[in-house]
């Protein structure tokens, strides 16, 4: 008689809540069979998976009739062969072992612990000589791919991150339901309350894998249409609505709602209400229209009163600015002592070294009150600064290093202890710069006047011995080219003072040189050797350049609206290139200049990875490509003027830049539309096209309206060098031309001008708005020809140069020179008046010479109107220096001349002006007031002219 028993332990787990396991043992007998087989049906049980171990116990306990029988064979079924060996290794039973309930239990548990199987069944069959076991393991289905469709506002990467799902994970029905709620919450947070999602899986036959589909219908963004408040007494609802600025936020998102609440709380904090809370949000969303109405309930709380007493020289408003209102929410001893320290330090910076500050906490009308009691003491000025022990440097040289100074015409001469401490450090550094390595300020004495409002300072110095550099030796570099580069990069030389700072800078330059050649782990050890008397020190540089690194794979993150090619085309290093730190920095700089990104980071993916090829991560944070700018200005020459400019730096997501600009001026309105397409044909070439309408009514001799267009290319050879070439076409319509300035019909005729223009620019200025170093050179030439569509022919060439040099600290020498000439060619015999040159006026003019009226220099007609010249030269120079804070001054010398070719050069037209002016720095440029005197004043002329302008000079 053969008997068989079927043991099935099944786990179908879609979540912890619906996980169930079933066990069946069937015994039966069929008397009609010649094999006398018998099957016995015993039991069916369903229990939670958290009791799986108990289930297995029940499962094997019903196999009692097989206990002790020898296991003759173990078979693995229902799964790929690649799993057979691994499953056999995990089993607690082997062929030849006696059948054991415990061993079966441990085997099933071990297989479930692999987290690879959704169902495990064991079939036990009694055979001659023992028991045959068959394990059937059904593998779980795992996600092989996640497909997101219908999303436009939220990236697929952000959706996958919010869902907490990764490739290779299994997913259950309940997990998909939770995931759907997370994604809907993500869209609600982004202001899309109409969003709908569908999630489903698609089997990949025979692979135990599924494709997860996420289909999204985003709908329209929800918009805040009204905002109201309840519970307020301190402010009106109109006040809170105004401070919320909810209309500027546009979309309704959780982040924007919190922004509104924060603004309301800050408004309350400005009145001392530090415990204001929003107790209720009544939000009504119309899901059909996407409109949102919000009512916020405010619990104002009790106000905290903060007052200052005893402050006579510094206003309470100034002192209150030292604190953030939110800091008053807690008023423990530590915080209040910190407030006292801040007030004290602020008084010290204003020259009150004897100030005493205390605080007092009281209650007035049930409102907590915090009073700061201030005893200011006298304001102290420095009368004198003297030195003792200084042999190598004069007192004047040492005082020039200090920020502390005596009272003068442009300096307050305040005594500030913290500044004096910094001055002591600066003097020591000054000495060390000249090789006095052990120099020290051993004493600082302060002698106050009787009423303590003046002080005399005396600093005692021990200079020590001056050390000079002896031999310089470089060890560890055998490459002759690199060795020579290292020598050339050194900022110190034999015989010079031993300057530690210059040695440190040299070390950094050497490391940077190695880093640009892939040796990013290079180290430079400085090993000085000093004589016994410290008069000389040898410098030994020991170089360990280490392994050379190369660029590995480059991963780009953070792209939402911009295309990946915008980044890849700016890369200065590619996979396989030598790791070059300078080129990596250049890549970051170029990407920031595109205007697409708020921040750019280009770094090694893992700083602890020392593989030869370094994986790189380029991460960007995008910014809005659209801008609207508004500006205004004034000058005595042009009156009020302003502009409105709209720009899109990524129009239609092509990387092209569109700019529309309207300039308003009484005498010179202008409208310009320009399109620039970077990376046109090559990485360094831009296509530029411009359309304009320019009305010029700022010359007493004529008016003209110019309408036209240009199309050309701009090629950037280097960061500071560029060349531009354009074809230009314009229609010029002169009006109201004075009779005494007309040299030919061209001066009054409506003309079409067409030709070619080329310009080369070299710009090394360190700052475009406030340059202090560097310069700019522009060489230009243009030609108008009949063959190119022009009604008059001419050739024009010119050179303009500006340069800036720091002479001393903030004293800057600035200069600008320009020469220009225009010549009729072909059948043309003259040049239209609006292409001739006019000189005079302030820096806001094209060809300024201060001290003279606008356009007043050069040839004039019989009625006294300016004719203009076809040759010109102008030189402007300024010496700029600070006075106090944002206030500065300048002295200047301007000279210029222009003349007509057919009249020849005449020094009568060469004029000179000299003058001075005040400068006040503002975020939009310097506010300038200048007065220029004529050095060659003539009969009937004024002594000079004054100018009031907002904007940079040159």
From TrEMBL:
Gene Ontology biological process terms, A to Z: membrane assembly
Which PROSITE patterns does the protein's record reference?
A: POTRA
Gene Ontology cellular component list:
cell outer membrane
User: Where do the POTRA domain residues begin and end?
Assistant: 141-219, 222-301, 380-464, 549-623
Q: What is its main location?
A: membrane
According to the record, the segments passing through the membrane are: 42-64
Protein keywords: Cell outer membrane, Membrane, Repeat, Signal, Transmembrane, Transmembrane beta strand, Transmembrane helix
InterPro entries in the record: Bac_surfAg_D15, BamA/TamA_POTRA, D15-like, OM_assembly_BamA, POTRA
Location comes to: Membrane
What Pfam families does this protein map onto? Omp85 (PF01103), POTRA (PF07244)
Name the UniProt record assigns to this protein: Outer membrane protein assembly factor BamA
Protein species of origin: candidate division KSB3 bacterium
């Amino acid at each position: 008689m053969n008997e068989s028993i079927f043991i099935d332990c099944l786990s179908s787990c879609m979540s912890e809540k619906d996980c169930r396991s079933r066990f069946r043992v069937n015994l039966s007998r069929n008397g009609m069979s010649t094999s006398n087989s018998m099957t016995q049906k015993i039991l069916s049980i369903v229990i939670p998976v958290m009791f799986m171990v108990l289930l297995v116990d029940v499962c094997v306990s019903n196999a009692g009739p097989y206990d002790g029988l020898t296991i003759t064979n173990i078979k693995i079924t229902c799964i790929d062969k690649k799993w057979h060996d691994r499953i056999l290794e995990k089993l607690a039973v082997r062929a030849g072992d006696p059948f054991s309930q415990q061993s079966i239990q441990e085997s099933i548990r071990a297989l479930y612990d692999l987290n690879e199987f959704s169902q495990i069944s064991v079939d036990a069959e009694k055979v001659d000589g023992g028991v045959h076991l068959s394990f059937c393991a059904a593998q779980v289905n795992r996600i092989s791919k996640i497909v997101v469709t219908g999303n436009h506002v939220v990236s697929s990467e952000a959706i996958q991150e919010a869902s907490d799902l990764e490739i290779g994970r299994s997913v259950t029905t309940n997990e998909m339901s939770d995931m759907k709620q997370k994604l809907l919450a993500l869209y609600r947070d982004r202001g899309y309350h109409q969003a709908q999602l569908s999630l489903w899986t698609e089997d990949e036959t025979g692979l135990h894998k599924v494709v997860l589909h996420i289909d999204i219908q985003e709908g329209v963004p929800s918009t805040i249409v009204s905002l109201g408040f309840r519970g307020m007494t301190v402010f009106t609802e109109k006040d809170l609505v105004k401070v919320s600025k909810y209309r500027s936020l546009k979309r309704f998102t959780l982040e924007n709602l919190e922004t509104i609440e924060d603004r309301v709380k800050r408004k309350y904090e400005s009145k001392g209400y530090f415990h204001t809370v929003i107790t209720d949000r009544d939000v009504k969303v119309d899901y059909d229209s996407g409109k949102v109405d919000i009512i916020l309930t405010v619990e104002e709380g009790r106000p905290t009163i903060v007052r200052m007493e005893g402050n006579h020289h510094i206003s309470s408003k100034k002192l209150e600015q030292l604190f953030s209102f939110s800091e008053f929410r807690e008023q423990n001893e530590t915080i209040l002592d910190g407030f006292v320290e801040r007030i004290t330090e602020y008084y010290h910076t204003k020259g009150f070294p004897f100030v005493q500050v205390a605080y007092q906490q009281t209650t007035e009308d049930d409102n907590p009150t915090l009073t700061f009691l201030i005893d200011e003491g006298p304001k102290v000025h420095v009368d004198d600064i003297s030195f003792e022990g200084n042999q190598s440097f004069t007192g004047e040289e040492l005082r020039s290093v200090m920020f502390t100074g005596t009272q003068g015409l442009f300096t307050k001469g305040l005594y500030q202890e913290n500044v004096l401490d910094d001055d002591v450090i600066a003097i020591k550094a000054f000495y060390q710069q000249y090789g006095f390595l052990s120099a020290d300020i051993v004493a600082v004495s302060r002698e106050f006047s009787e009423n303590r409002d003046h002080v005399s300072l005396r600093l005692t110095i021990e200079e020590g011995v001056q050390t000079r550099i002896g031999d310089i030796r470089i060890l560890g570099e055998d490459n002759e080219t690199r060795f020579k580069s290292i020598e050339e990069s050194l900022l110190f030389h034999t015989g010079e003072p031993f300057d530690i700072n210059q040695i440190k800078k040299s070390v950094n330059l050497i490391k940077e040189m190695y880093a640009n050649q892939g040796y990013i782990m290079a180290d430079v050890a400085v090993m000085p050797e000093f004589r016994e008397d410290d008069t000389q020190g040898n410098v030994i540089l020991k170089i360990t350049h280490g392994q050379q690194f190369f660029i590995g794979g480059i991963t780009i993150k953070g792209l939402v609206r911009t295309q990946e090619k915008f980044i890849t085309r700016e890369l200065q290093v590619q996979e396989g290139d030598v790791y070059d730190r300078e080129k990596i920095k250049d890549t970051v700089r170029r990407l920031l200049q595109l205007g697409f990104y708020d921040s750019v980071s280009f770094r090694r993916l893992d700083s602890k990875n020392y593989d030869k090829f370094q994986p790189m991560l380029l991460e960007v944070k995008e910014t809005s490509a659209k801008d609207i700018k508004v500006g205004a200005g004034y000058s005595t020459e042009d009156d009020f003027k302003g502009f409105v400019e709209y720009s899109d730096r990524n129009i239609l997501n092509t990387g092209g830049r569109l700019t529309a600009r309207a300039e308003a001026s009484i005498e010179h309105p202008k409208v310009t539309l320009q399109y620039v397409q970077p990376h046109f044909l090559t990485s360094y070439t831009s296509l530029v096209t411009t359309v304009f309408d320019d009305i010029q009514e700022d010359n007493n001799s004529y008016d003209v309206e110019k309408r036209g267009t240009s199309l050309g290319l701009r090629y950037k050879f280097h960061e500071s060098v560029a060349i531009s070439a354009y074809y230009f076409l314009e229609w010029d319509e002169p009006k109201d031309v004075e009779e005494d300035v007309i040299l030919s019909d061209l001066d009054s005729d409506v003309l079409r001008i067409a030709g070619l223009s080329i310009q080369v620019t070299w710009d090394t200025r360190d700052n475009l708005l406030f340059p202090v170093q560097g310069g700019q050179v522009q060489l230009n030439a243009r030609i108008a020809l009949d063959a190119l569509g022009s009604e008059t022919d001419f050739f024009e060439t010119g050179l303009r140069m500006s340069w800036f040099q720091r002479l001393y600290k903030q004293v800057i020498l600035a200069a600008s020179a320009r020469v220009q000439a225009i010549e009729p060619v072909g059948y043309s015999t003259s040049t239209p008046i609006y292409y001739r040159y006019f000189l005079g006026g302030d820096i806001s003019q094209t060809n300024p010479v201060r001290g003279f009226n606008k356009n007043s220099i050069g040839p004039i007609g019989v009625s006294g109107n300016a004719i203009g010249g076809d040759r010109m030269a102008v030189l402007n120079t300024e010496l700029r220096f600070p006075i106090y804070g944002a206030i500065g001054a300048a002295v200047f010398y301007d000279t210029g001349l222009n003349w007509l070719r057919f009249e020849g050069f005449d020094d009568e037209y060469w004029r000179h002006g000299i003058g001075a002016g005040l400068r006040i720095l503002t975020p939009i440029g310097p506010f300038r007031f200048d007065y220029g005197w004529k050095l060659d004043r003539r009969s009937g002329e004024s002594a000079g002219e004054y100018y009031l302008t907002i904007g940079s000079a040159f």
